[in-house]
Amino acid sequence: MITMKGQMKALTFTSEILETTFDLHVYLPPNYNPLYTYHLVIAQDGRDYFQLGKIGRKVETVMEEGARETIVIGVPYPSVKMRRVWYHPDSEDHKKYIQFLVKELLPFLDDQYQTWSLPHGRTLMGDSLAATVSLMAALEYPNTFSRVMMHSPFVNETVLNAVRENPSWNRFEIYHTIGSEETNVKTTDGSRMDFLTPNRELNKLLAGGKARYYYHEFNGGHFWKDWEKDLPEALRFMFTLD
């Protein structure tokens, strides 16, 4: 069994914008020192990334390989219904969630931890709709976030148009992966959707730009067992020193 050397802790934060209190999941690197400056990851679907993705152990492993010292914050969702309300790009409250990230959560985390204040030092990540809202937040606030990790994002015309209309992503670092079997995915509203085809469309847009961009189609579906296997590669791409 792998023994973690870093710290796993909980941090309570109340959002006035979302009228919700969060029990944030926190990973701090080994020998964390408040005098040092760290990279920051904010994971949407945060409970899943910590419990199902085991991101604490995985980021620790890649740091042992030489990756940058990184703090990971997991933002959980209170219910499947609210997850869709906050994350879906066509939801009325989608922008409220992004405002929460930028105007409330990030200043709070800056008060708690010493992290790089430049967009290059901040990463947003998520799976499915959580990946979508991560990308949309970076597109809306490119001077705040310029690193995005996406596992099987939900992609529709709203997302594609946001990429087409906002060239700021050309300065980003983007990790983007999708399963080759994601052609008939059951979504949280009960419908079924082809995720693979629109993700390939998104790939064509991003691959044609100037971003540091990695795209991969893994053998698998829209499941955490597949995203967990892919997570170390995503972390290596994003945080391994040049």
From TrEMBL:
This is Alpha/beta hydrolase. Keywords: Hydrolase. One of its GO terms (molecular function) is hydrolase activity. Pfam families: Esterase. The lineage of its organism: Bacteria, Bacillati, Bacillota, Bacilli, Bacillales. PANTHER family: ENTEROCHELIN ESTERASE-RELATED, IRON(III) ENTEROBACTIN ESTERASE. InterPro entries: AB_hydrolase_fold, Esterase-like, Mycobacterial_A85_antigen.
